């Protein structure tokens, strides 16, 4: 079924990815892991997202996460699995998702018919996802679907996020953007993570970011002020278009009407979450 151009991308940016990503900025995640003996924020982040793949080491995580510094990953994996099992990590993450969404959305929204409808729509879209060449999606697709509607919605957004993300990595390779160039050029669009958070979460140094910016300038993709050139903007748009094409199946499966409804409902919950302080003010943009 044909869907309107860029409709799936809009839904992903406005209603799917932000709802899933609330967990990575939630204090609840750190509290759940701290109770199990994992207190370093990078270890919490790496373990919580990779746990669906099992007790994997740094090579697997660096490959599937794409834009993390490998020695940064290696400082925490596989060591964290000596303190916590992947099963415990997944249970802790789900508990954190529960408390986070309840706090950000409120009990009235949690119990609303609209949230249950959004969960059903997102899960229906996820039926169109495919496992081949999508390791993070495939790992999460093997997990059981939670029973409560808000957790069903969060689980579905996780599936859709990782499905698009896996395809995005293929598009990045095709575009010839290495991990740092991908981060720096994304930040230059105004939508990506700020350098402060790239360094804190991904493990890079300012010198690494500066070197990537120099490489992008040599290719004519970034100007002297760190802004995308016309060609740089074109590269980023081709990248997103390739990602859209690789990620079309779940939204075509859902259909245009269902996609529009999911974007509307999910977007409302995202606005509520953002208004409630889901993300730090300085996490995204060019600052």
From TrEMBL:
Domain of life of the source? Bacteria
Entries under InterPro entries matching the protein: HTH_67
Fetch the Pfam families from UniProt.
Answer: HTH_67
Question: NCBIfam families from the entry?
Answer: SCO6745_fam_HTH
Please give the name of this protein: SalK
Species of origin? Streptomyces vinaceus
